[in-house]
Amino acid sequence: MYGPQFRLRSFDVLDAPSRETVLRLMMEALIAANVAYLLLHPDTPRLYESGVRYEAEPGEEDDWNDIPETLSLGVGDCEDLAGWRIAELRVAGELAAMPRVSVFTEGRRVTYHIAVRRAAGPIEDPSRELGMP
After folding, report:
1. How do residues 16-25 score in pLDDT, each as one tens digit?
2. What is the enclosing helix (H) or strand (E) of 126?
3. What pLDDT, on a 0 to 100 scale, did the predictor assign at position 123?
4. Cβ contacts of 71 within 8 Å, gap of 6 or more
5. Does the pLDDT at position 61 exceed 80?
6. Contact 119, 69 (CB under 8 A)
7. Is residue 27 within 8 Å of residue 101, measured between CB atoms?
8. Which residue has the higher pLDDT, 109 or 129?
9. What is the DSSP annotation of 8-35?
10. Is this structure's pTM higher than 0.85?
11. Counting Cβ atoms within 10 Å, is residue 107 exposed (0-12), middle (13-18) or buried (19+)?
12. How far apart are CA 39 and CA 42, in angstroms?
């Protein structure tokens, strides 16, 4: 099975606007894969009805998982869950649903959180809905 991976050693040294740009583009790639999957598999359960729960990944690496991988694991973190939710909103016609990327820097450590900006403006956070403390 072909599964592309990104290894971004440069991420921690990029400035904040560059980090946000990279994350937004990576999210759009994940969302595009999820939209295509949902169109091919319309019987896929909706995120909030799927039984998938939020779970943070241990360690320093961060796997970005599409819908079938997230379903098989039964858990996902913020980009997995937001990518799924945005894809299902777009398939349902809410084309303006977008990722909301928040980047946090503590010394040399960079973390981020991705939620969903709905078309009308409100923020929806699938991670919180599915168990993130």
Report:
1. 889 889 999 9
2. helix 126-129
3. 98
4. 44, 45, 50, 52
5. no
6. no
7. yes
8. 129
9. -TTGGGS-HHHHHHHHHHHHHHHHHHHH
10. yes
11. exposed
12. 6
Report residue 42 as tokens: 């319309």
Decide if 103 contacts 19 (C-beta within 8 A): yes
Report d(CA 59, CA 66) in Å as an integer.
20
CA distance 54 to 36: 23
Of 74, 75, 79, 72, give the one whose Cα is nearest residue 54: 75
Tokens 């945005």 label which residue?
86
Across the strands, what pairs with 123? 117
End-to-end CA distance of the chain: 34
Neighbours of 4 (CB within 10 A): 7
pLDDT at 60 over 80: no
Q: How far is the C-alpha of 33 from the C-alpha of 133, rounded, in Å?
A: 28
Helix (H) or strand (E) holding 116: strand 109-117
